[in-house]
Amino acid sequence: xxxxxxxxxxxxxxxxxxxxxxxxxxxxxxxxxxxxxxxxxxxxxxxxxxxxxxxxxxxxxxxxxxxxxxxxxxxxxxxxxxxxxxxxxxxxxxxxxxxxxxxxxxxxxxxxxxxxxxxxxxxxxxxxxxxxxxxxxxxx
Length: 140
What we know:
Layout: H1 27-54, E1 58-68, E2 71-79, E3 86-93, E4 99-107, E5 114-122, E6 129-137
């Protein structure tokens, strides 16, 4: 009976064992990573500045209370640079989202970036919600 043996490969015939690097990234990789991070931070800062310059006045509805079929009380906040004035339009809406009341409110100038306002909107029928349709800065 013959015994089978597994073939052996001559040493060095197919190259040595693969080398694994124990060193970290080189100087070029570190510089590239640092430049990429700096570009990301700069891009984020530019985007924030461009957005605030394009839309210097923003507003949000804080809450509202439907008093009756003819009135709605609304509280909203306006965010704008100190010293700025604006006109904000608020709309009262019915369950079908039809406009049942509107009011233009002059806001500012305020000492801080955010200021809150409370107003009463007259409605032509029962409203179920109120929204700030938008705010536009004024010259004065």
